[in-house]
Structures are given as C-alpha cells and as structure tokens.
Amino acid sequence: MGDLLRNEGPVIVGFVCAIIVIANYYFSSPVLSNAVSSLRNNTSLLAAFASGLGAVNLINVNYKYITTRRKGLWMIAPIYLVLFPINTILGIYRHPVYDFLYSQINMSIGIALGAFVGFFLVQGVYRTLRIKNVESLLLVVGMFLVILRKAPIGSLIWSGFVPIGDWLLFIPVVGGIRALIIIYGFGIVSIGIRTILGYERTQFGILAAAKEE
Amino acid sequence: MFKEGMIVNFILLSIMTVGYLYILQKIKGGYLPEIRNIPAIDALKEYTGRAVEMGRPMHFTSGDTSQDISSGERFPNVLSGLRIAGYLASLCGKMGADLICSIGMPTILPLAEDIVKSGFIAAGVPEKFTSETVQFTGGQYAARTIGNIARYNIACNVLVGDIGSTAWTICEAAASIGATQIGGTPNDSNMVVLVVCSDYTFLGDEQYTAGAVISKNPPDLASIVAMDFFKAAGMVLLFLSFILLNMGNNWIINTLRL
After folding, report:
1. A27 close to B (CB below 8 A)
2. A28 contacts in B (CB within 8 Å)?
3. Most CB atoms closer than 10 Å: which of A162, B12, B14, B79?
4. Measuring CA to CA, how many Å separate A27 from each of A22, A33, A99, B7, B216?
C-alpha cells in the first residue's frame, strides 16, 4: 500500500489536477475556474518553499568548498555564508542596508553581465564567420545581406540590399520560425498527453534511469 | 458549455489522445517503429568520453530564473532538458566523468537533484553524486553559471531546457575555455544563438523526443510515432487551407475557429 501510494499517488494527483486545468481551458464553469485559481495559488506557495531549498543548496555547496579547501573557492565561500544570514535578516526588516546591497551590488553585477553580451556577441559572430561548409557559407551570405539592409552604408552601395534583406527576414526566416513553433506545439502536446496519462514521470523526479541506456 | 472557439480544439486534442493510446497498444503488441538517431545524443557520449580523457567535468544547465516555471508553458521545455540531464548523469557515471549542474529555478532544484542522482544510481556509482553536483545559481544565474564553467574548467557544456537571453553569455564563456557545447531550446529567439554557438543542437522537436530515443520505452516511442502522424496531418491541413484560401474558400479556417 505504501509503495502504491509513493509510486502512483503523485501520478493520480497530477492526473486530477491536469484534468481540472484542461476542463477549465475548454469549458466555462465558475466551479472549475475557482478550483484552478486555488491550484495556482498553491503552486505559488510551493514555489516559495522551493526558494528555501535553493538557499539550503547554496549553503551546502559553499560549506563543502570550505571543508574540502577547494582551490580558489574556499576563501570566497565564507563571504557568502556570512552575508546570507545578514542579508536575510536585513531583508525581512526592509533595512536600508538591504536596499543598498541589492541595488548597488546585485543589480550592478547583473548590469555588468548584460554589458558583456555585446562583447560575447562579437566573439560569437567572429566564430560563426569561419566558413567550414556550404551551410556556414549560406549563413554568412545571409548575415551580410541582413547587415547591409540595416547599415546606412548598405543602401549607399546598392539600393537592392534593403528589399533583399527585407525578403530574407520576413519570408524565409518567418516561415522557418513558424514551422518550428508549430512543431514545438506538437511536441508540447505529446509531452502533455504522456504526463496526464501518467507515462511521463520526470516531473516527480522519477527518471526510471535504470531503464535508460 | 464550451468556451467560444474551443469545440474543434477539444475534438483535436481528444483525437490526439485516442491516437496516442492506439499507437501505444500497437507498440505493446509487438510493432516496433524505426527511430532515427539524434546526432546530439551521440555527441553526448562522445563528449563525455572526451571529458574523461581530459580529466575535466561535464556541465549541464536547463535555463534561467527570468520567469518562474509555475507560469506554465515553460515546464515541458525544462522537463525534457532534465531528462537529458538524467541520461548525461548515467553516462558520466558509467564512463567516470564528473558532472556539475547549474540550476536557475528553485522550483526544479529538487527534481534536478533526484533525476541526476537516479542517473548515477542507474550507472552503479551513487557516490558520484555529491552536494556539489547540482548547484542552485540564485538570482544571478548567468554570473554563477559562467563562474562554474570557469572554476571547474569544464570539458563540455550542455545547455538544454528553457534557455533564455543568457545563451550568448554562457556559450561564449564556455567557448573561451575550449569547451565543446551541445544546446537545445524551443525558445525561438534564443535557439538561433544555440545553433550558432553549439557544436550540436537539439533542433525542432528533437529535444522533446530525445528522452524517448534514449529510453525506447513503449509510451515514449508511441508519442514519437503519434507526433509524426499528427505533424503529417497538420501539414496536409496547412496545404489544403493554402489552396482553399487562394480559391476564396474559408471553410477550413472557419471550422478550426468553431
């Protein structure tokens, strides 16, 4: 009975929840919409608890860096372990120091990383420009046509770059992306059906990896 | 009773479900469909072997924190990514490579831990899973992930799941230390980045079918066959709609909107 509950219990709960949400998507009923709203609230509650698990994971990882004297990390890890409780307490009381730490350190790191994207993009484009086969040649030609469409010098060199670039962007590219979106749609439906019928159990952390490979 | 415009939608979903169950019964009855190999899955094996030879770990990430998973449509993307993480863990366990997973969403952290752990257990090396294997990145997902990539000096970076705008940053950080890359995301604007940056990519629905190709379980195989059948039906419907619309007939479009 215990094994049955442990293995099949989550599947049954998942099935019932999925049926309620799907029914609410197709049928108009105040009972269903109330049930779905309640389920969504519970999901947010569970997500909040999961944040706590994330914090525990970070503490574990940093603690291990210290205990194993991991090269290059064991000296940084204590900073996290000290700042974490301080920041949590300051955050609970909305202390101005918390706002300072968030806006002046956390946000600054985020913005700095955002700024890196420009450099990474140039680096990526440089690697892409190396023509290794016919596909990469086509990619480079297409890229230059689209760049010349957008760059002011393009229309100065030849007015035909703009319509060619427009055609590339709005006909083949849009067609290709839409085809992919349709295919993704089928993929999502396929996973959805498998999940609802209880054949997909990855979402419960049950990989059945023993069967794989 | 039905919401407006939902009747045909509901009928189509019902047909797909019945079709899936029918194909599943056929497969259970002995019908074995031929499934093509996905190059990115073969590359996972090859790159894990390379990581062992180099004495450097593999790295996996399934996406960032910009939108919480409980919002809905991103869940299948992350789920399919985690399935590949489980397979990667079993490969690493069997071949003797280390694995580091950077997880950006706290909601999937326990799932990722369980899945990666079961991958190592399946390979017979549960001790390979340590508290360092699956790491939560916190709010600064990109910073922590590129930090992990650099600190552990990874041999191969596997980004499969719901990869967002951080794709460039992570891919280039890994490329700068000479790591090979395998990418995959159904996120249409960032998929292009992964195609450009990665050595192998899970293209189109390959990410969803990868788990099935690996496991070859009847329910998974049935979903591949059913999906292919529905894709063919969808193409026929698109083609017919195109012809009829050009003849001034909106019948298919109007029917689908019922």
Report:
1. yes
2. 1-3
3. B79
4. 9, 9, 46, 9, 36
